[in-house]
Design brief:
Blueprint lengths: L5 H19 L9 H7 L2 E6 L8 E6 L2 E7 L4 H15 L9 H16 L2 H13 L4 H12 L3 H10 L5 H7 L13 H12 L19 H14 L4
Parallel strand pairs: 1-3
Antiparallel strand pairs: 2-3
Helix pairs in contact: 1-4, 3-4, 5-6
Length: about 230
């Protein structure tokens, strides 16, 4: 089977995100309220700390009940992105791509479009620019308003042909003294850049390490029910 090209994946996931947002009549970034949206959609959230930098989270569905598990060892920006990514896998209106790697790329692009709708990014960016903010200041203000990972907005800027030249120039000067296993290099460098520009810190850059298991009982019951209904060998 031939692979789907990048543009096709991006168009597919962008369209899916637009439909999702239109159903909610969204007029602003949804990052700050994504947990409430998920609950409104009937999806249960489970948070726990897992000491694996490769495991951001996953989703599952049992007996018509939907669940998203989030590793709270990651910072809150990455947790929100994980929720948006997993919405893609749970949305009944989205037919998954047959190739797993392509489907994961589609889920990532869906999450970026969901959290950073093109129209809203342009509107906020123009408004902040008209207020006299610097290119780098605007970038970090937008990450806080949208509550997305820095890397996500950085990539979105490039997709939307917004300038990252000044950011790139500053990033080249940064040498990381300490690596964080729960941050990619670009995310870590952008955190350092924020600090070097004297922009105040954000609680979103910290791991919440929260544990929330209220939905585990529902999941356990769903698994038990599915096992009862499974045919005997």
């Amino acid at each position: 089977m031939s692979k789907i090209n990048r543009d096709t994946i991006h168009n597919f996931s962008r369209h899916a995100a637009i439909i999702f947002l239109e159903e909610l009549s969204v007029t602003d970034f949804i990052g700050p309220v994504i947990e409430e949206i998920v609950k409104f959609k009937g999806i249960h959230l489970i948070y726990d700390t897992i000491y694996d930098p490769e495991a951001l989270g996953f989703s599952t569905q049992k007996m018509n009940e939907k669940f998203i598990f989030i590793n709270s060892n990651f910072n809150e920006r990455l947790q929100k992105f994980t929720i948006a990514h997993e919405i893609y896998h749970l949305d009944d209106n989205i037919d998954p791509l047959k190739n797993t790697k392509e489907d994961e790329r589609a889920a990532d692009h869906f999450a970026a479009n969901l959290l950073l709708p093109e129209k809203i990014v342009f509107e906020k960016q123009r408004m902040l620019k008209s207020l006299g903010y610097d290119e780098i200041e605007i970038f970090f203000i937008l990450t806080d308003l949208s509550q997305v990972p820095y890397e996500t907005l950085y990539k979105r800027y490039k997709e939307l042909s917004l300038s990252v030249s000044k950011i790139n120039k500053e990033l080249k000067k940064i040498v990381l003294s300490v690596e964080d296993p729960y941050l990619k290099e670009i995310e870590n460098k952008l955190q350092v850049l924020r600090k070097s520009w004297g922009i105040g810190g954000s609680h979103l850059d910290l791991a919440s390490s929260k544990k929330r298991f209220e939905s585990l009982e529902i999941l356990s019951k769903s698994i038990a029910e599915s096992e009862k209904e499974a045919p005997n060998d």
